[in-house]
Amino acid sequence: xxxxxxxxxxxxxxxxxxxxxxxxxxxxxxxxxxxxxxxxxxxxxxxxxxxxxxxxxxxxxxxxxxxxxxxxxxxxxxxxxxxxxxxxxxxxxxxxxxxxxxxxxxxxxxxxxxxxxxxxxxxxxxxxxxxxxxxxxxxxxxxxxxxxxxxxxxxxxxxxxxxxxxxxxxxxxxxxxxxxxxxxxxxxxxxxxxx
Length: 195
Fold this sequence. Notes:
The chain has helices at residues 2-19, 96-99, 104-118, 165-179; strands spanning 27-32, 41-54, 60-77, 82-94, 123-135, 147-158. The protein is of the alpha+beta class. It has one domain. α3 (104-118) runs antiparallel to α4.
């Protein structure tokens, strides 16, 4: 089918563009092994978001982490309602007072579509979960503070094969939102801050 080979070429072009992606200084972006059994073609990327400062040692504190997978099946898959599927994961530390907010999960889920809409990434068939996690330490770990995290797992079907890269840009926007990074105006570079 002529459209299938064209979409596979567009998937390959997406992979090239994604591998060249430049992110702001707080975000470490790299390609990672993709799942092999979900689709004939797959590529995956991970990010770690630092707070932008060191905490005594040479390691920076990570405030968020995530993974983005783009799948392509030239035959299409019924559950996807298309030939492509973006599958994502984001986990970020949150302030303890937000953890008890009853609207937290609804607001966090709205960030997914808002982030995609902000870069004009068209999509359908969204699904996912938002989980909040609170950890308390005891015994020898009792000196550690209580910590809270939010985890967003989402997937969607890109509706335009010629703009797949927009979905990766949208996911990066989601990472920035969840981790509380201040938006940067287009054309402006960010600098790492030090405490």
